[in-house]
Amino acid sequence: MQLAFDASADLDLYVTDSLQETVYFANTPSRSGGFLDRDRTCNDAAPRVETIVFERPPPGRYRIGVEHAQPCAAGVAAPFAVRALHGEQHFETGGVLPPRRFAPIVLELEID
């Protein structure tokens, strides 16, 4: 599961797995094996991509959320794209998040 965003903000990816545990920068790895590759911040070059990987994801519902942790430019809303791949399944969405807002569910999916 990936979150891609530009240099206007520090966004954070959150994935709540089927066991109701959320993987994000402060909780990685999870009991189900999900882990964040790296927390991207305003200091990282754009485009920025955060990825949470589950080697063997437990079956069930997964919820992907995005937080606009801080603007890297004064008060700018931040565009983002979220992508999730599992086998042949491909899920994608995007949006714009105002500064210091959290969207707990931007994408929901079922994994068999």
Molecular structure report:
- 0% of the residues lie in helices and 57% in strands.
- The radius of gyration is 13 Å and the shape is globular.
- It is built from no helices and 9 strands.
- The strands form 2 sheets. It has a 5-stranded antiparallel beta sheet with strand order 4-5-1-7-8, with no helix packed on it. A 4-stranded antiparallel beta sheet has the order 3-2-6-9, with no helix packed on it.
- The protein has one domain (2-111).
- It has strands at residues 2-5, 9-16, 22-23, 34-36, 48-54, 60-71, 78-86, 89-97, 102-111.
- The chain has 112 residues and is mostly beta strands.
- The two termini are 16 Å apart.
- The model has no long low-confidence stretch (mean pLDDT 94).
Topology record:
Elements: E1 2-5, E2 9-16, E3 22-23, E4 34-36, E5 48-54, E6 60-71, E7 78-86, E8 89-97, E9 102-111
Antiparallel strand pairs: 1-5, 1-7, 2-3, 2-6, 4-5, 6-9, 7-8
